[in-house]
Amino acid sequence: MSNEHAPKKQYYRKNVPLFRLIQKVKLWPSRRGILHGVKSFKVRGPFAELVTHCDQRMVIRNSRNSRAARWLRNKWVFEKCAQCRIPAWKIRKFEATVFAEHWGSDLTEMEKGE
Ligand SMILES: [Zn+2]
Fold first, then answer.
1. Alpha-carbon gap, residue 95 to 92, rounded angstroms
2. What are the structural domain ranges in the chain?
3. Separation of CA 90 and ligand 1 centre (Å)
4. Fewer CB atoms inside 10 A, N or C side of the chain?
């Protein structure tokens, strides 16, 4: 495959809040190591209701140190959900994301169109 549309590297702080990270990457790593696409994500205070494209619904807590936050930061994902059909560009964008200790966006500011 051609690499000419390789996404620009995005730098995020390692300690970005989980909810912001999910809103940004629209991906969710399940406990079994499967990466799902996020269809809807509604924040309700310290919790959020997340629905994947394969229609799994769950309530998650906003934690920088949760399993999901660590897995996303470290990209510990073994498989992609076949039902979610995550577009390749989204995976490439995620793979181009670098989590850095001392610099990068902390995602505290909302961007246009969010
Ligand atoms: Zn899925």
1. 5
2. 10-100
3. 14
4. N
